[in-house]
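agent> fetching stored inputs for the 6-O-phosphono-beta-D-glucopyranose docking request
agent> found them:
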Amino acid sequence: MTGPSPTIFVIFGAGGDLTKRKLIPALYDLFLDQKLPQHFSILGLDHQGWTQDDFNKHLKENINEFSHQRKSNGKESWRSFSIFLKYLNLDFLKAESYTRLQVELKNSPKYIFYLATAPFLVENIINHLGEANLFLNKESRVVIEKPFGKDLESSSKLNETLTRLLDESQIYRIDHYLGKETVQNILALRFANSLFEPLWNRNYIDNVQITVAEEIGVENRGNYYDKSGALRDMVENHLLQLLCLIAMEPPIEFIKNEFQNKMIDVLHSIRPIAKDQVSKIAVRGQYIGYREEPRIDPNSKTETFVALKLYVDNWRWQDVPFYLRAGKKLPKQVAEISLQFRSVPHQTFPGKTHEMSVPNNLIIRIQPEESIILRFQVKRPGTHFKLQPVDMRFCYNEFFPGKFPSAYETLLLDIINGDGMLFIRSDRETAAWSILTVILDEWEKKTPSDFPNYPAGSWGPKASDDLIERDGRKWLLTSTSLEEQSACPLSQ
Ligand code: BG6
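agent> prediction call returned; pasting tokens
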């Protein structure tokens, strides 16, 4: 391993899902690419009662499934990586565990605490680390996974604890969507091209749609998910980040505070939702079969689907609706943002020429077929004048074949190198929760009478279609639209 300074990467929750699926595979890929610093080591903490061998074996079994470089790994690469792994059984709620940790870290100049634990443990662990003086070294960092709290009040409390014990520069609140290539490319598309910017506003754009659909259900994350739900799990973080990237003003410089300021300005501009509006702008759904999943309350009222309509009240976006949708057990795993342009102001061609005519559309496909599609009308060849929409498509994988770094590879490397640009500031959290807490409160008060209300493999409850159709629009991403678009090659 080569690079700047020695580092111990301490994972709280080393026996959990995130560690095996994301963290260790990303660190392993960085290791194989020789991007980790010299003397890097990983200290896994959990209370599974495992031995070192059990830990290594558990991680190795999963590396084959989750590492990008699984094909090139071989026993030798894993062996050289596993030398840097250490496992400790610790109870995170006991003070003596942190005395033990002090001893382990005594000779290290730099450590990163990655909290890959259940959300309710986060504040407790932070307090214990503070009491054990493990934040005194300004080179130490704490990484916190979302959800950052569960509403405005709890997130403010968590922030108070964090800022009492740490400098903001030591805190890395991670949202892995900001590490995705296609998400970062929204910045390049908007701010490294002059073509789109003049059109990127209420004069030309009729509405913006953001869909993050997952085919999978809650799998074995029932304990966490049933207390969270789709609004906290996906909208508060990933979908609002996407909205901010689409709606933000151009940053003057690509530096943390400037970038974050512009993103947070968008959140501050989102029209506050009145209590009596919640049922008009927010739809929740639960898939049939959710209540029978492992570790889910058989009477659960947790939503596995959300659709929202938001407005960004500023000069650029006044009265342009932003429709957001996220859910589990939908027909396909696909995340995309679609900017629908206004219809032409005057129909030059006679009615029957544009039976198939649709407004222009710019589609940013985040995953899985990473691409950008510009849809416009052409004349269909033939003796009659007929219009037809066609797609001009940029496929990432045709242009840049090979492996992309995963979002976690990008973000873990940033943390190791102390680059906080893509991490979330506390005021961003306050702004996001301020928007959504009213919805959470209203939902809490009213038990949904129709849950579960959508079958697995559908696009959510009917109310989600009604939400947009009431405005005379339609969701542009549908099973039919996916079938009609020629596929890009998938990334490896
Ligand atoms: C996580 C959520 O943040 O994002 C999961 O907790 C969700 O519920 C996941 O499945 C989706 O991430 P991706 O990268 O697969 O779109």
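agent> quick read of the result: The mean pLDDT is 92.
agent> awaiting further instructions
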